[in-house]
Structures are given as C-alpha cells and as structure tokens.
Write a structure and sequence with these properties.
The complex is a heterodimer of chains A (about 300) and B (about 180). Chain A has 12 helices and 9 strands. In chain A, helix 6 links the parallel strand 5 and strand 6. Chain A has about 300 residues and is an alpha/beta fold. Chain A has a 5-stranded parallel sheet, covered by helices on one side. The termini of chain A are close together. In chain A, helix 5 packs across helix 6 and helix 5 packs across helix 12. Chain B is of the alpha/beta class. Chain B has 4 helices and 8 strands. Chain B has a 5-stranded parallel sheet with strand order 3-2-4-5-6, with helices on both faces. The chains are: A alpha/beta (about 300), B alpha/beta (about 180). At the A-B interface, helix 1 of A face helix 3 of B.
C-alpha cells in the first residue's frame, strides 16, 4: 500500500490489517507514555487547504505518537494564499524530504493528483465531495467494536448525501465489509446518478427516515454542509429537521443499543437533536478516539515498512 | 499431525518439558518465591512458553503467577528494511509492571535485538524493579550486550543455520530443530 486515496484502493484483508493494528494503537491511548518509536526519523506534513479541527489534530497526534516529525501547512498563512499553485506548494514542501503527505483539499480528486507528483506516501484527508477514507475506516472500526462483524448488519446513513465525501467512502467501506447499507436523504440532497451507483456497489436508497430507523443496527447522521450549498436545498432548517433530523421522537424508534454516529462537527438541533447527540448510545466521542487509533494504524502501514 | 520440520531435532517434547520445569525452578530460586513476579511472553512463541513456565511455578508454589504478553513490533530497529509487520497484542497484568520483577520469556535468543526492543517497550509501559530474561534456546551470535538469565538449552550454531521452535499451542507439536 503506497497511498490511501480511496476506500476502493483497499482489499478486505488490508482493512482487516488496519483494524488489527488500530486495536493495538487504541491501547496506547490509555498508557502514561503515549509514544511508539515506529516512525522515528520520518517526516509527515499535514496540508490542509480546508478548515478542520478534528481530522488535522487527529493526524497530527497520530504522527507524533508514532514519533514522526509532523508539521502542519494550511492554505491560510501559506504561499497558497499568495496564488501559488497546488503543484508548486506540494513540490516545494516535498523537496524538504517529506515521507508522508496528508492532504485535505476542496477539489475532488486533489489527493489523487498530488500522488502523481510526489514520491511521498499520500493520504487523502478529504477531497471536495469525493472521499474521506480514514473517516470511513474509523466509522467502520467503531461500529465493529459495538456490533462485532459488520456482515449482514444494517447501517442507515442519513442526511446531506450530495455534498458528503464521508457518505461516499462509507458506503464503499461498509458494503465491502458485508454490511447492508440504506442511505436516506430528502430528494434534493440525494445525489444525481445515485441509482446506477447504488446498484453497482449494492446499497439501498430511501426518502423515508421513519421507515428505515426501526430496522437499523446502526445510525450514521451526516452534517448538513451549508458551506457547500450554492442554492436552497430545503425550504427551512425546521423543515429539514422535521423530515430528516434525528429528533427526540425518532430516538424512540431505534433500539437502546443501536450506536449513533456523526462524523462531526454536529449542527445540534438541525440534523441531530441534543438528546440523540448526548444519548448513552451515541458513539460520537468514541469515533474521535477511534479515529486517532485508525490514523496511527494507517500512517504505520504506509510509512513503517520497506515499501514506503 | 504436522509435517516434520527439516533438519536435526535438538529438543523433543520431553526435553522441552524438562527445560521449562528447570527454568521455573530457577526463576523461583532467584526471586526467592513468586512474590511480585510477572512473566511476559514475547510474541509469538514466547507467549505459550510464559504460560507453561507460570504453570510450572504455580505447581511448585501453589499460587498463580501473573502472565502477560508483550509485542515489540513497534520498537524493532528493522521496520524500514522489511515489509510492514502486523502488530500483536500487548497485554499486561492488571497490577501493571511498576515495582515488579518482570521475566521476559522468548523462544530463541539470537542477535539480542528483539530483547533490546522489548526493554524499550517495557520502559514505556512502566518501571519494573528488575527485568530478567528466560529463553528456551540460546543460539549465540549476539549483536548487542544482552545475556539471558535462564536458558533451556545453549545451542552452538552457525549463523547460516536455521533454528526452528515449534510448540503445541502454535504449531501442533513440541520440538526444536536445527537445519
């Protein structure tokens, strides 16, 4: 494995290996000394051309706990804001002897393009509306810890599908691991062309959240990405919540042991009510600690061995 | 029945049993009992060996001794020269290792680099009162100043020879061969 650009790049065995190592990395979080020497002498650059708190911090801590030297470059405050092209920015940074490049960019396909330009291992930390593979891995890893094997388990993914890279990576990952996936969204936020894709990948679509929730073994809520919306996709926030929010009333439709996921940041009161976000079955914070373990594992698999 | 390993058998099941019984007694004698003792098996075959030694100690002392598993993958100094290795589980007894006498248990002592990695791993996990080393086979060729405290069999070998330890728990049979 040279890069991690898409869940499609991974076999089921490779996902299993990432999860196996992540389980060991998880234990490191409970130690007094949260440090492993596996990536000593390696340099990882986090290049974030979009705002991020959890993903960037998560990759930063993951790299540091593996003893890599980690630096962060963001669009604001870097030469990118002076008009330097992505290619020049990336090549400049990589000329400093970088081993791993974690990149987030608003353009779909940016990480793939960068991987063509550099020798460093490239990790896609979110490219536009395309993919966010480590988020999907951490979601599946979290659900596996709660549900055991995902084979045959029913996962509902609910919300703004059109603008969601998390949804795209998650359907690929969950279906690859044998889960049954139903995606739920209002018609205006259901991506065009989803029908042939859903047939190819093997997942279901629905506009009726109340019908799907009682059957779900896990519920994954997605953020309404207002910053990516150029037009009006629903009349009012209230209307969206009534139709597709995980409200207090809907919480009663799902079993008490059904994990509730949200990749964050949450719009409380819009796609998820505080009652659901803070419910005992909510695994939102666990996703964050799982994310750290999974990203440590991904960096380890990409950078520790001889192929890196 | 597993296929026989190539080469000459140097330890059969009875030899291995005797060696582990002797190591159990040596550990007890050196520690003056089983108090504060923790056996940490190094993956892969050190783990069942540690369990067997613990059983031997329990049979003599009448009280169980704490056993754990230690994986040193992340601490190896050859990570960059090999394909990515899968990590195994590190599992310490609930009491932790602080102030305890930790006996590392492994199947073969060779270059000493695995034990170097284990010592580094231990220092990240706590501060034992003392660390000792028990191995089933010491085949020599040390690359670091490391010496075992308890040895099942000293086995002079050429560097080019291959020493294979197979155990019932992992391989279906107990034997040590050299080829």
């Amino acid at each position: 494995m040279k890069h991690l650009l898409s869940i499609d790049d991974l076999s089921v065995d490779q996902i299993g290996a990432i999860f196996e190592t992540a389980a060991e990395m998880h234990d490191v979080q409970t130690r007094d000394v949260k440090k492993l020497p596996a990536l000593r002498g390696r340099t990882v650059v986090n290049m974030f051309f979009e705002d991020s708190t959890r993903t960037r911090s998560s990759f930063e801590i993951a790299g540091k706990w593996l003893s890599a030297d980690v630096i962060n470059v963001s669009a604001k405050g870097s030469s990118a804001s002076k008009g330097e092209s992505l290619r020049d920015t990336v090549l400049t940074v990589c000329a400093m002897g970088v081993d791993g490049l974690v990149i987030r960019h608003p353009a779909s396909g940016a990480a793939h393009q960068v991987s063509q330009w550099v020798d460093a291992a490239v990790v896609n930390a979110g490219d536009g509306m395309h993919e966010h593979p480590t988020q999907a891995l951490l979601d599946a890893y979290t659900l596996q810890r709660h549900l055991g094997s995902l084979a045959g388990r029913h996962v509902a993914i609910v919300g703004d599908l059109t603008h969601s890279r998390v949804f795209r990576s998650n359907v690929l990952c969950l279906t690859k691991l044998g889960a049954r996936v139903t995606v739920v969204a209002p018609p205006t936020l259901m991506p065009s062309g989803i029908d042939p894709w859903s047939r190819d990948v093997g997942f279901e679509t629905s506009y009726d959240l109340d019908a799907v929730l009682p059957e779900a073994d896990a519920v994954m809520m997605l953020r309404v990405q207002r910053e990516r919306m150029s037009g009006a996709f629903f009349p009012t926030a209230r209307e969206y919540t009534v139709g597709y929010g995980l409200t207090r009333n809907r919480l009663a439709l799902i079993g008490p042991d059904v994990p509730i996921c949200h990749p964050g940041p949450m719009n409380r009161g819009l796609e998820i009510a505080a009652d659901a976000a803070d419910a005992a079955q909510s695994v939102v914070l666990e996703q964050v600690s799982s994310g750290l373990a999974v990203r440590m594992s991904v960096l380890y698999h990409l950078l520790a061995g001889e192929e890196a | 029945m597993p296929a026989p390993a190539p080469g000459r058998t140097v330890l059969d099941p009875r030899d291995i049993g005797r060696a582990l019984t002797r190591i159990s007694h040596e550990i007890l004698e050196r520690n003056k009992g089983a108090d504060g003792l923790i056996l940490l098996g190094l993956h892969t075959r050190g783990v069942p060996l540690a369990r067997r030694i613990a059983e031997g100690i329990a049979a003599v002392e009448g009280t169980p001794v704490a056993v754990g598993e230690l994986d040193v993958t992340m601490y190896r100094d050859d990570l960059r020269s090999q394909p990515t290795r899968r990590a195994h589980k590190t599992q310490l007894p609930a009491s932790g290792i602080d102030g305890k006498v930790v006996v590392l248990v492994d199947d073969v002592l060779f270059s000493g680099r695995t034990i170097r990695a284990a010592l580094d791993a231990l220092s990240d996990l706590g501060r034992p009162a003392a660390v000792r080393l028990a191995v089933l086979v010491d085949r020599g060729h040390r690359e670091l100043p490391i010496r075992a405290d308890h040895v099942g069999k000293n086995l002079p070998s050429a560097r080019s020879e291959r020493v294979s330890v197979r155990l019932a728990e992992t391989d279906g049979v107990d034997e040590v061969t050299i080829a």
